[in-house]
Write a structure and sequence with these properties.
By secondary structure, the chain is mostly helical. The protein is 45% helix and 5% strand. The protein has a domain of 210 residues: Serine Threonine Protein Phosphatase 5, Tetratricopeptide repeat (Alpha Horseshoe), CATH 1.25.40.390. The protein starts with a helix and ends in an 11-residue tail after the last helix.
Length: 518
């Protein structure tokens, strides 16, 4: 009897296995296989759109950049003491997620560069699509080496999952970034039509070449490419600063604030200031809930969730310091009668400030600071930049700026100043004064180290540039700052870069070497 039962059991098992194999051997009808994809023009367009998508993710430029690099600077404090004190390690979540999404962007670009060229399609469109991919790969690689120093440079589509990558030098990264950006600049338009706003442009590629050379302290090359962007502004009107259209205090605030708003801003006097993809925008991450930029849907993919963490309706766990507020100039001669540099009013929520909402049916409220676990967050200030007017959705609609024209002007001033052996010139003075004039401040008479550092400090607060600026100024042969004195808990020779994630080191079986000090 036992033998019969065993034979029946074996028969049933074989029957089930055969049935399962037959059941599983079905071609899915709701999606294409890779072999069926990359066949036509529309699929080429979709492939390029997917290369933009990692920019949006909270693990990339959305939340993690604000969290890490604003917290590292001397102008903010986060309730997570490990970040403020650099006591995390190579397995830390945000160390991993930033690396992951930069790597995902690079992988998708390498995939596009392999799959798109053989497609039979309009050649002019193909050139534009591939130029966008080169720009994006260069952008991802710029931040990969700026953040992780010498990780592997991967410039082809990896198919061998067992390959162990070695470290690549910063010089190799620079050559790759510049090559990609030159290809991008040659194939991209100066402007896109309304249906394609936000895609990479020729000016975006030129600006990134200038920025790359600036970070590598090659001043003449930086000046050359940044000047080309300025020429696009001066001679062709492609770019420019938003400037006050009237003398009301709101005119001066809105001329700056519109760069960080999801909606156009209008004064009671009828002066209007364009917000997203405006004259000042060189490249920004698109959170428009529709159009060409849609790829991966769902929570944390369709919109910015920075407001959930840092906005007036969110956790508010990253706060500006009183010392930062005090960097904004007091003035007695402002055209609108303001007491301080108008960027101060745009930058911070302070006790007693009113919060206005994008949805005008929501009643304005007063700013109130939350209590935090970190006793260092005591000043009662919050970030208004990017969150004024505020929104109540976790998936916020506000685009995030990667590069804007004010940055080009201030980088050009610095490159020109350094190329001349720290000499003030008409060009460097004019560039800085253009930014100061937008704020309604008195012009400077000469450029100095202090003038460059101050203007970048007050212009780019909460745009996570401050930390990178401090690092590169500390690495000059004649350093502009003592970084260990400027940033509490910073260790020179270690904290200039994040550690390469531990899982990457382990996967390489010892081939990939960790950054010094980690």
């Amino acid at each position: 009897m036992k033998s019969i039962i065993q034979h029946i059991a074996i028969f049933l098992l074989l029957l089930m296995v055969g049935s399962c194999e037959s059941y599983l051997d079905i071609t899915p009808e709701d999606r294409l296989s890779e072999a069926q994809y990359y066949q036509n023009e529309q699929e080429a367009i979709e492939t390029v759109t997917s290369c933009y998508d990692p920019l949006k993710h909270p693990g990339g430029f959305n939340v993690s950049f604000f969290f890490m690099f604003t917290s590292f600077s001397d102008r903010a404090v986060h309730e997570a003491a490990a970040v403020n004190r650099f006591t995390f390690d190579a397995s830390y979540n945000h160390v991993n997620t930033i690396y992951t999404y930069l790597s995902k962007g690079i992988y998708r670009c390498n995939l596009a560069l392999e799959k798109i060229p053989p497609i039979d399609m309009d050649e002019e469109l193909k050139t534009e699509l591939l130029a966008q991919v080169h720009y994006l790969r260069g952008l991802y690689n710029f931040y990969m080496t700026t953040i992780y120093n010498e990780p592997p440079l991967i410039d082809y589509l990896v198919k061998d999952l067992d390959v162990q990558f070695e470290n690549s030098s910063r010089e190799e990264f620079k050559r790759s970034i510049i090559t990609d950006m030159k290809t991008a600049a040659a194939g991209l338009p100066k402007k896109w039509d309304a249906a394609n706003l936000g895609r990479a442009t020729q000016g975006a590629a030129l600006a990134m070449m200038g920025k790359t050379y600036l970070y590598y302290q090659q001043w003449d090359s930086a000046k050359f490419f940044l000047q080309q962007v300025k020429d696009l502004a001066d001679n062709e009107g492609v770019y420019g600063l938003l400037t006050a259209q009237g003398t009301d205090s709101l005119d001066y605030c809105y001329a700056y604030q519109a760069n960080f708003s999801a909606i156009d801003l209008e004064t009671p006097g009828g002066n209007s200031y364009d917000s997203e993809n405006n004259l000042e925008s060189i490249f920004e991450i698109q959170f428009n809930y529709g159009g060409w930029e849609v790829w991966e849907g769902g929570w944390q993919a369709d919109g910015s969730i920075t407001a959930l963490y840092y906005g007036p309706e969110g956790y508010k766990n990253l706060a500006p310091t009183a010392e930062y507020r005090d960097q904004f100039e007091e003035t007695t001669s402002h055209p609108a009668g303001l007491t301080y540099d108008p960027r101060r009013y745009v930058m911070f929520y302070e006790p007693g400030d009113t919060i206005y909402y994008i949805d005008q049916s929501v009643e304005p409220t007063l700013w109130q600071e939350d209590l935090h676990m970190n006793g260092g967050i005591t000043e009662g200030f919050g970030w208004a930049k990017y969150f004024n007017p505020a929104h109540q959705s976790n998936n916020g609609p506000t685009n995030l700026k990667i590069m804007r024209y004010a940055d080009v002007l201030l980088m050009l001033a610095e490159a020109d100043f350094m190329a001349g052996g720290e000499t003030s010139t008409d060009l460097s003075v004019d560039c800085i004064n253009a930014v100061r004039n937008r704020a309604g401040l008195e012009p400077i008479g000469a450029v100095t180290r202090e003038a460059i550092m101050h203007e970048r400090d007050v212009e780019f607060g909460f745009e996570w540039l401050r930390f990178f600026d401090l690092v590169r100024w500390s690495l000059l042969d004649d350093p502009w700052i003592d970084i260990e004195e400027t940033i509490p808990y910073f260790q020179k020779g270690k904290n200039e870069y994040l550690p390469i994630p531990l899982y990457e080191i382990n996967l390489s079986r010892g081939t990939l070497k960790q950054n010094p000090g980690w």
